[in-house]
Amino acid sequence: MKKIGVVGGGHVGATTAQRLAEKELCEEVVLIDILEGVPMGKALDQWQSAPVELFDTRITGANDYAAAEGAEMFIVTAGKPRTPGMSRDDLVSANVNIVKSVSEQIKKVAPDSIVIVVSNPLDVMCYVAKEVTGFPKERVVGMAGILDTARFRAFLADAADVSVEDIQAMVLGGHGDSMVPLISYTNVSGIPITKFVGAEDLEAIVKRTRGGGGEIVKLLGTGSAYYAPSAGAVQMADAIIKNKKRILPCSSWLEGEYGMKDLFVGVPCKLGENGVEKIIEVDLSTDEQAALVKSGEAVKEVMDIVNL
Asked: Within this chain, do residues 49 and 159 fall inside the same structural domain, yes or no?
């Protein structure tokens, strides 16, 4: 891939740009932000790390989208961050206009690009990006399930005293308090997680996963998570760019899958060179299906207040 645009020069965007460059996933990363000089300064600093980290990807910064013209992919991180006591959904009114403006510019300079959305509230911002760009559903996808699953796996590995590499898990649903960790599909190298972690501890881990972002916001005092979110976005980019056909939990537009339609929600997706190449429907327990539908309803409630 020749060029990837990263929109938003804050912690998430800058860290994403650095990870993309270090993995050499494209020839050029363009970091875009409205703050004068900031994306240029960060990009220059990052590019000067290339001789040490040994990558040839060029990182440039810009205040306008012309520099990213023709980019094959955009990763959208722009928006206001959460503050202590603020839910992801509280961000909706502030960030709709930001993501709407970003989407208009992407459509203008790169109408054939794939868009990975990271901005919160995630599922609703995916909807805004899809509606404003007019891109097909395959080319607008949200990074949330990977982050939620990473938190879940990290907590489980700690509780089970095993490597994170051996934890297989998946968190579906909206990126918020209603997310649905699938205990029935969670295992350690194929062995059910219940062989390692008791029911009470599992319940506590599920609860901590749902509040994982808020826990970090509270500790930081200002700002929100960015190392893990950027890692999740770059994992998606890697799967798409290298046509890996990876099955990852992502926020995707549903048209009847899992009994839901006309909304973005986290489900297992096959990611390849065309973006979301397939939504994988797995068998859920009655409780899991009900929880997933409830999570979708929570997303829909926020979508309904968006005025585009």
From this structure: no
The predicted model scores a pTM of 0.96
Q: Mean pLDDT, to the nearest integer, of 40-51?
A: 98
At 89 the pLDDT is 66
Q: Residue 288 has which token pair?
A: 């899991």
Q: Is the dihedral of CA 87, 90, 96, 102 positive or negative?
A: negative
Active-site pick, 42, 151, 175, 300:
175
175 is catalytic: yes
198 phi-psi bin (left φ>0, alpha ψ -120 to 50, beta other): beta
231 and 90, same domain (yes or no): no
State mean pLDDT over 153-178: 96
Note the pLDDT tens digit of each residue in 104-134: 999 999 999 999 999 999 999 999 999 999 9
Closest CA to 18 of 31, 35, 8, 7: 31
Query: Is 308 within the bounds of a domain?
Result: no
Rounded CA-CA distance 5/68 in Å is 6
Q: What are phi and psi of 37, to 5 degrees?
A: 85, -25
The separation between CA 29 and the C-alpha centre of its own chain, rounded to angstroms, equals 18
